[in-house]
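quick one, 360 residues, struct below
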Amino acid sequence: MTYTLFAQTAEAVDSQQRIEEVRSVFERVGDSVLRGDSILILFLSLLSALLLGRLVAAVLRRLTKLISRIADKSEDLDRVNQLRRIETLIVLSIAIIRTLLVLFAIYFWWVYTHEGQQSTAIIGTGAILTVILSGALINTLRDVASGSVMMAEQWYGVGDHIHIEPFPEAQGIVERVTLRSTRIRKVTGEVMWINNKDIAGVSITPKGVRTIAFELFAKDEAKAAQLIEQTNLRLPQGGLGVINPITIMTISKIGSDLWHITAISGVAPGREWLLDKFAIDILKELDEKQHILVHEPISRYADNEAERRFARTINNLNKVSLDRPGVVEQAFQRRVAKAKSNAAKRAVKRQDIISKTPKP
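---
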């Protein structure tokens, strides 16, 4: 019983001593920080850090503009991508340098105004401030963590056209990237800031251009080509319009007087309606008197890399396992039968199209 009372008394005395020590630390910190000369030095240190940070940021932004102009003049896509990555890293370094300058200013203020004090004092004070600021800046810290991961994995860079999920309207050109946020400019001219922690996914437009293909079925290849040229004359050209004219890529004859024509063109993201609606309306309007087209034009998105990868995946459907006897011969016979059936169906379809086509 006596031992228990003694232990409880010792714990109470120990707790009281710790409370007095914490109180003493706070009093010393308050006395040293809240002095007039200490506050003035802290203010001047932070002001110098902020001014120097703005000067460094101005110089680096001029450098990014120079790199951007060089990238715009370059004809090599790999070179352009490399310059854009450099531009992104410079933009990121602006925020990092300014943060480091502020931290150095605080460190300088502490060392200058607390000369001769133990180094553990600044560690203890820093720990207290860290706990306080981490609670107040939890969202900012999450932004920084998300931004660090995205930049390390090179999700996107300055100059890329992106679509940010899960925001339907978050689509535009990346103008600035920091560890905390991303700024994009939409095709309408509006500027949009998005916190990095809110970015669930990013879609990047290859080369910043949306490529659209047209499938035409015509009775005369030469007149169909003239129809496309007349359509190009009516389409708006430029950076926010049609990037390049509609160009014929392939022409194949699929009947006695029927031609299959594939043409492509590029348009700025967000202006796809210029090709998949406006251009098709022009083609149909021009064809009303000539009746060159057998069917209405068909538009679709086109990307060489996507088509190659999808074709590779689909081709796997025709592959069979070779570990069973006779499977190769059976597969060959099935393919021959399938090819004959498809050829017969195409012949019937072509004959039907030819019979329905009005004679001139």
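The chain has four domains: 2-150, 154-204, 209-317, 320-356.
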